[in-house]
Amino acid sequence: MNQLDRISERIMRFAIWILGLATLVGCAAFFRPAAGLGVELVLTTGVLAVVWSIALWTSKVVDRIVEPSRGDSRGVFAFLLVLAFLSMGAVFIVGVHSQWAEKNLGTFGDFLGGVLNPVLTFLSFMALLFTIILQQREIHAGKKTAEDLQEERRGDRLVSERMQFENTFFQMVAIHNTIVNSIDVDRGPSKSQLRGRECFKYFCDQMLASYNSNSSADELQKSLTAHNDLWKSYQNDLAHYYRYLYNIIRFINESNVNKIRYIRILRAQLSDFELLVLFYNGLFPLATKFKAYVEFFTLFDNLPKDLLFNRSHEDFYDASAFDEKAPKKPLPFADNP
């Protein structure tokens, strides 16, 4: 509740309080001709006014006692004590003056004791209730502190787990780049040796030559044969490359992180010709899980489609392999250790 709402509430409550008091005074004035302005009418009106005030302001007084705005509730308790003693003093003075002439002070004393004892007992009971309320608030505050501490620890644990994941992930990416850089192609004494990512351009040229020399009308079979010919010549390098890249994607998928964010980082490490080699490798039956990852994580988002040996080969994969916004099928397996 903001400051303006609190002020509006106070004004409304004060207006209702004044209206109630005015109603009591109006009723007293209405009954005055019949009853006369005697002590009974004054006391009755005063008691009703006190009851009305207590009923209307009790919640605010309790709020001030339980949750004081200036450190403690001494001011509220002092006000209530002064009000109680003033009320008792007023009742005593009025009673003495009204009963002095008839010498009924004994009867008045019994009346005063019978009224004050329940009042004091009620005040003691209220003090006990305030003590219980304060204890409840302390317990609630303790629980809230414990919950906040638990939430803070949970946040720290999540941060720690994310840091551990990122350390492992970037180490794996660094090792992946080391694997790529360790690949070499010896093209004979008359040509320079290829190393690292420039080898994948050579791999693609070799597959394309094999693809073009195949007269089969089955595009899928021609593609598989082209990659299989490459696999026979460079299995040692490619097997290590495929396995490690697959395990990086698997590690991301099994972690409780923003998977797309880290897949994008990994995807940015792959050159166009790496993606093309991976494209045709994913068509093999043994690479079924890798193909599912490709389609689920849009691994070919950066693959230029004009590099494909035939544009119809795009249909070998679901649209989600190339477009993050395309509908995705859930992974058909639980690839857990």
Q: How does this model look, in words?
A:
By secondary structure, the protein is mainly α. It is 73% helix and 1% strand. It contains nine helices and two strands, in the order ααααββααααα. Strands 1-2 form a two-stranded antiparallel ribbon. α5 (198-212) runs antiparallel to α6. The model has no long low-confidence stretch (mean pLDDT 81).
Percent helix range: over 70%
Number of helices: 9
Sheet having the most strands = 2 strands, antiparallel
Can you tell me the overall shape? rod-shaped
CA radius of gyration: 44 Å
Total strands: 2
Question: How confident is the prediction overall: mean pLDDT?
Answer: 81
Query: SSE order, as H and E?
Result: HHHHEEHHHHH
Record the SSE blueprint.
Layout: H1 3-35, H2 39-66, H3 74-99, H4 105-182, E1 184-185, E2 194-195, H5 198-212, H6 219-254, H7 259-267, H8 272-281, H9 288-297
Antiparallel strand pairs: 1-2
Helix pairs in contact: 1-2, 2-3, 3-4, 4-6, 5-6, 5-8, 6-7, 6-8
Which properties best describe this structure?
1% strand, two-stranded antiparallel ribbon, 337 residues, rod-shaped, mainly alpha
